[in-house]
Specification:
Phosphorylase Kinase, domain 1; three-stranded antiparallel sheet; Protein_kinase_ATP_BS; Kinase-like_dom_sf; histone H3T3 kinase activity; membrane
């Protein structure tokens, strides 16, 4: 049974007074929030390594269900300003969960449709509440000492802080750091195939495809596999539903300088005449 085959108990009365926390728990298959002490068989933080960071979260290499996984941790629904930004509400974070799961599920064959493994597979979504664990704080500080950081140290969070955890299969290193140029054809080919399948099955539009959003992993001496990550600026039309992220008020996204990527964001906004839709 896939996640999308389970239906939320929707009604006309509920639609007028939605509980977004309840909806998020439903998508994560939880009845209530969890704490960090899930047990090492589920989430082992020993030896955690910070892989990277973004404005809204941190990414660590940990062990999930006994295997290496990339764990994205996003603080949500709190009053604490993080990295100069307000935290996303339960409502605001719902599209990321839906988008991530839809793309991850492209590896599942449905109704004879083509399948593809080039979208990072989600291991789990999880809503937790409590302070940042010591193991992750140590990994965060080690990363800052070695590479520097533009983010606030996660020790700012208190015991009432909620987090959304997204665990991905380990997809390797981002394309910006990948130096094996002999695999360029394979990378381009896999990227094109993955986009074709996503467009065919989900009417997918990427809008943010660059080297930092592609991971590459060696699977043998002569072969690599490419994975997409960070699909925030995208559009999906699964079935009769159109899924967007509302970018209208995200002004900082369009104020970046020094890279063609930022110019593209502004051109995209101009082409859309500042019209951005939202899933919710």
């Amino acid at each position: 049974m896939t996640r999308r085959s389970i239906q939320f108990a929707w009604s006309k009365a509920y639609s007028s007074k939605r509980d977004f926390y309840r909806e998020l728990l439903f998508l994560c298959r939880q009845k209530e929030f969890y704490k960090w002490n899930l047990g090492k068989k589920v989430l082992d933080l020993k030896g955690a390594i910070k892989l990277g960071e973004g404005c809204f979260g941190e990414v660590f290499l940990v062990h999930v269900n006994g295997k290496e996984a990339a764990l994205k941790i996003i603080p949500i629904a709190g009053e604490q300003v993080v990295n100069g930004e307000k935290q996303k509400s339960f409502r605001d974070i719902l599209p990321e969960v839906v988008l991530s799961q839809e793309l991850s599920d492209l590896h599942i064959i449905e109704d004879g449709n083509s399948t593809v493994f080039y979208w990072t597979i989600i291991v789990f979504f999880m809503v937790l509440k409590r302070r940042y664990p010591r193991e992750l704080l140590n990994a965060w500080k080690k990363y800052r000492a070695e590479f520097g950081s533009e983010n606030d140290c996660p020790d700012i969070f208190g015991s009432e802080q909620y987090f959304l955890l997204i665990a991905y299969e380990n997809g390797g290193v981002d394309l910006e750091k990948f130096q094996v140029y002999s695999q360029a054809y394979s990378i381009v080919y896999q990227t094109i195939v993955s986009l074709i399948v996503a467009e065919n099955r989900l009417c997918f539009e990427h809008r943010d495809l660059h080297c930092g959003n592609l991971l590459v992993r060696s699977v043998s001496q002569k072969a690599i596999r490419m994975y997409h990550i960070l699909w925030i600026l995208i559009t999906l039309l699964p079935g009769s539903t159109t899924i967007y992220l509302n970018l209208k008020n995200d002004l900082e996204l369009f104020e970046g300088q020094g890279d063609l990527q930022f110019d593209i964001y502004r051109l995209m906004r101009r082409a859309n005449k500042k019209f951005f839709l939202s899933i919710l």
